[in-house]
Amino acid sequence: MNGALSLTLGPALGAPALRLLAATCRVRYAEGEAGARWRAGTPFIFATWHSRILLLPALYRGRRLRVLISRSRDGEMVAKLCARFNLDVVRGSSSRGGAEALRLLARALAEGTSVVVVPDGPRGPREIAKPGIIALASLTGAAIVPVAVAASSEWRLRSWDGFRVPRPFARCVVRFGEPLAVGRQADADARERARKTLESALATVSSAADLEAAA
Questions:
Q1: Is 137 helix (H, G, I), strand (E, B) or coil?
Q2: What's the N-to-C CA distance of the chain in angstroms?
Q3: What 8-state DSSP symbol labels residue 71?
Q4: pLDDT tens digits, one per residue of 153-164
Q5: What does DSSP say about strands 171-176 and 144-151: parallel, antiparallel, or unpaired?
Q6: The pTM is what?
Q7: Beta-carbon contacts of residue 199 (< 8 Å; ≥ 6 apart)
Q8: Domain boundaries, the chain
């Protein structure tokens, strides 16, 4: 399959398959207070590890969300897939287009739209948060909400992130953690502490979601 064809057919075939997979799964939403505040109109920066993103476009399709996706070739396919679930996309990463992406995400938050950032994407290191998400939180004053998706049964790919693919008919959990605020005047040391706190919070919420899905 040539490049242009794969970019076209990948999302076209992937979106129905993802919808079907999500429809077979028994999903529990454990969104807590952060979820209630989001639905009431508070804009958040949602953060999740790259390995756990697969079901999210289908589970939150059509919501008022803007998703940060890299400008890589793989990112192009993911962007087209998100579009099929009526999710807005901002293109950029730490290596390409980061400053422009930061500006567009900040504008979305100022307009009341929550954003989704994968802090270890698009190529890792695995479960190490890059500083851009902390800079966005400090710039805008929006809190970061850690998010994890877990499944009772899944495949794990031999990719850099150990990408997780829930098996059909699995029990799944979507869990939100407590919002993490970063001060607008945070200096470099405070931002680094916030970055490490985010990593710890994502580890905690991921472990909790795994245990709940397996129960």
A1: helix
A2: 42
A3: S
A4: 999 999 999 999
A5: antiparallel
A6: 0.93
A7: 127, 128, 129
A8: 3-214
